[in-house]
Task: inverse folding
C-alpha cells in the first residue's frame, strides 16, 4: 500500500509531499511490515530571499522528522491493537 500526501496550508509558499510505502517484510511476510517514508520540502521561488528560503526548508525538514516519528509510533500501536483484537475475536469464535 502506498500513501501520498501534500500540504494544503501555505501552499503558495511551501510545497511538502510525503510518500509512505507499506510492504510485507521478505523475511516474515505474514507478520512483519516494511515502512518506507520519503519527504520532499520545497520553498516556492523567492529569489530575493533565497538564503531565508533555505533556512525555512531546513526547519521544516527538522519538524517533519519529529512528527514522522510520532506518526510511525501511532501506526505501530494501531497494528498491535489490531493483533490483540484479532486474537480475542479468534478465541471467542473458538469457544462458541
Result:
Amino acid at each position: 500500500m502506498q500513501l501520498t500526501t501534500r500540504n494544503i496550508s501555505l501552499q503558495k509558499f511551501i510545497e511538502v509531499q510525503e510518500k509512505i510505502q507499506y510492504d510485507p517484510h521478505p523475511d516474515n511476510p505474514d507478520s512483519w511490515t516494511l515502512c518506507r517514508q520519503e519527504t520532499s520540502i520545497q520553498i516556492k521561488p523567492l529569489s530575493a530571499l533565497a538564503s531565508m528560503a533555505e533556512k525555512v526548508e531546513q526547519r521544516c525538514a527538522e519538524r517533519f522528522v519529529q512528527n514522522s516519528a510520532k506518526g510511525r509510533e501511532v501506526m505501530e500501536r494501531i497494528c498491535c491493537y489490531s493483533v490483540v483484537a484479532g486474537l480475542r475475536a479468534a478465541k471467542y469464535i473458538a469457544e462458541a
